[in-house]
Design goal:
By secondary structure, the chain is α+β, with helices and mostly antiparallel strands. Helix content is about 50%, strand content about 20%.
């Protein structure tokens, strides 16, 4: 099995395990604030956007963020909306099938394949939104920040 396929399948299972039973605007606020707190140890200016059904319900640009971050958030959101998967899984899917964004007729100005976009998946419903982060040096860091924060958030909801 190829490395891309293994990573793709691992991320598929991870995304399923991080599905929500419910996700409200209040949840978006709480998760957005948690993401911001969890990003502080990285020491880099982070930008966060959470959308539900196409509506941006949480958006924050930390001190030092630049306008470029808004473009990256948009690219990542577009990819999650189109593919119903994380942008990191999208990267490995493209690698697995040997294609690029351009091969798929997707403009890289509008879509991103790499870390930092994650689906809000409701159990029994499917993808209803996205959690996007931009600003960390490595795209795996953007992805891991979201994963760690969602795990913490879901754990707090069950407690």
């Amino acid at each position: 099995m190829s490395d891309a396929k293994t990573k793709f399948e691992t991320l598929c299972e991870l995304e399923k395990s991080l599905a929500f039973d419910t996700f409200s605007r209040e949840d978006a606020l709480a998760l957005g604030l948690l993401l911001n707190e969890n990003a502080k140890p990285y020491g880099e200016p982070i930008s966060i956007e959470i959308t539900i059904n196409g509506l941006s319900v949480f958006r924050y640009f930390a001190e030092g963020s630049i306008q470029d971050s808004a473009l990256w958030l948009s690219r990542k959101r577009n990819s999650v909306d189109l593919m119903s998967m994380s942008t990191l899984r999208f990267l490995y899917w493209l690698e697995m099938i040997g294609e690029t964004l351009q091969d798929r007729k997707l403009n890289p100005d509008d879509y991103a394949a790499g870390g930092g976009g994650f689906p809000i998946r409701l159990n029994g419903t499917g993808v209803v939104g996205s959690i996007c982060v931009s600003g960390l040096m490595q795209h795996e860091d953007d992805h891991q920040l979201i994963v760690d924060s969602v795990k913490q958030f879901l754990g707090n909801k069950k407690a």
